[in-house]
TrEMBL record:
Protein name: Unannotated protein
Keyword hit for Coiled coil: no
Cofactor(s) the record lists: NAD(+)
Molecular function GO terms recorded: dTDP-glucose 4,6-dehydratase activity
Keyword Translocase: no
Lineage of the species this protein comes from: unclassified sequences, metagenomes, ecological metagenomes
Amino acid sequence: MTSILVTGGAGFIGSNFVHHVVTHTDFHVTVLDALTYAGNKASIESVLGERVEFVYGNICDAELVNELVANADIVVHFAAESHNDNSLNDPRPFVDTNIMGTFTLIEAARRHNTRFHHISTDEVYGDLELDDTERFTERTPYNPSSPYSSTKAGSDLLVRAWIRSFGLQATISNCSNNYGPFQHIEKFIPRQITNILSGIRPKLYGSGQNVRDWIHADDHSAAVLRIIERGVIGETYLIGADGEKSNLDVVKTILVAMGEPEDAFDLVSDRPGHDLRYAIDSSKLRAELGWKPAYNSFDDGIAATIEWYRVNRDWWEGHKNAVEEFYRKQGQ
Ligand SMILES: NC(=O)c1ccc[n+]([C@@H]2O[C@H](COP(=O)([O-])OP(=O)(O)OC[C@H]3O[C@@H](n4cnc5c(N)ncnc54)[C@H](O)[C@@H]3O)[C@@H](O)[C@H]2O)c1
């Protein structure tokens, strides 16, 4: 049986991936996660058992990582510090986890010649002008803006160098913004949904013109699985679902789907260095590996996500006050 090590499998996208793998393969899954504030074991509790094992630990722990990688056929590396706002307040954990953690993992993978897939973000490419007709491709030069995106860019470059210098059996994917179940409520979409569920008005940064390219986390998971199965070693694949929306449109979509007037939100101060627009051209992944997103409509994906947060109040309600307090202190 194929054995897969999933780092960060108790986080948002990692936990969605674990559920996807359990449903669509017969792989044995080991999750390695340090359960930072962003990790939640409850997100994978329902699948833990014979096929899915949980190991509490840090990806910077070379001894533990070496042992787990030695026993795995494939490593899929999601673990990261992932929140831009936190990276502006305290960049250090981003350097430790995103750079040193990735270094620790690829050293173990090269030692054991283990297949490695590195999960990254489109934010490594910087941003585009709102009226630009271009989208990011695998050939777009790196131009990260924040401590978060620069440490992710650094980790991508380490993986690329390990492929070239040491023959690491690796692939890389850079994905656009994800939404779906199990996302920490500090993030834009679940924050607005849980605001409305808590009787708080949604908050929009700046004027809301910034554009993000949205993809459902389950479509991201399917793309990663496809890359593991059919991807060419050494290659980078961009993952996106042609889901460009302004933040203003996203807030209005959520409000309308939840039966509220579409203007029932507040404008708050913008984030420093806030990237204007991200847009992904995923034609390489679609043409070469035959992947396409299953969610064709953002409205349907958002409706399903709202329903998940409505039904799973226990999963998020305990964190709501602390998250809003954090934003209140920043005037957001
Ligand atoms: N969220 C997005 O829209 C998005 C888009 C593209 C790419 N990505 C990438 O996908 C990956 C997962 O993102 P996410 O949104 O699920 O993040 P997340 O913050 O929800 O989850 C990160 C997980 O990693 C764990 N972790 C953090 N530091 C660790 C360490 N040192 N050792 C072990 N575990 C540690 C956390 O406990 C948590 O479970 C990241 O690499 C991120 O850069 C995210």
